[in-house]
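Entry:
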Amino acid sequence: MTTPDVPLRAAIEALPAYVPGARPEPGRRLAKLSSNENPYPPLPSVLSTITEAAADINRYPDMYASDLAAAIAGLHGVPTEWVVTGGGSVAVLSHILEAVCDAGDEVVFPWRSFEAYPILAAVAGAVGVRVPLTADGRHDLPALAAAVTDRTRAVLLCSPNNPTGPALRESEVRAFLAQVPPNVAVVIDEAYAELVRDPNAVDGVAILLDHPNVVVTRTFSKAYGLAGLRVGYGLARPRLAAGIRAASTPFGVNGIAQAAAVASLAAREELLERVAAIVAERERVTMALAGLGVAVPEPQGNFVWLALGERTSEFARHAVEHGVLVRPFAGEGARVSIGTPEENDEFLGLMRAWS
């Protein structure tokens, strides 16, 4: 005797799959430039803290990550009650949409952008509204503003944009906010903020101070090298922050992640030296690509974007044949993370062989 399947929400049935960066097969050595990871391990002081914190994993962590929230607040010069932590910035993004969206509401975002945006909107019960990027891989902010309707509850901005690379500029974001109703949450997703060198790039925290409807999200996964521990945070005005916190998973940031993030903030200056090394490699790779006649959108994260169109899948296979994993987006292009100098040389070598 068979029983009927438990029905799933139609929005869940229709979800696009989140595609993670490919991992090397067991026993095969490949340069993993597919996941925008920091190529360097945590600092010794952070690893020591992780080891010490592991002794307490039989206990629940601080539900509100109080020490971490205080350290983040101190870093940005905002009150602690403005800080919301979560299991990576993607979890915080999810909780933001769950806090502000009802079924049928709209979430406006650029496309192509972070792959999780349409998934998070659908899970929150909202309708995702995709606005195409400009030809040079940037947000089309006038078009994003025009896409806002009376059903819009949130707009997601990604700076630098993943996977194309350019950062939003402060002046254009302020002009955009002047066109958006104050009851619409505008999320500035700054997962790669520490890697940005564009002097005109938006500073989400400065924007937040002037606009109560703005939320800023950041992560410890990229610059801080804690991707495997899943810890990120959001900054918002107290009422909005309280709503996001209410929607969050209880004990959503484990104790080891909390301790590692606090230790990483304490070692921030040392960590930023590593970030500078990644930026220098990014610039070297970009210049080398230009020397090969390959133009990329202005990279401000830890990756470059190759707009390969229909040849994207072919290129991804070519890369694997040359010992490198990249992140292909079929029919559009490939994102290539900045790795160690040796890994970047492998990538440049396969580019010289590509035709």
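The mean pLDDT is 95.
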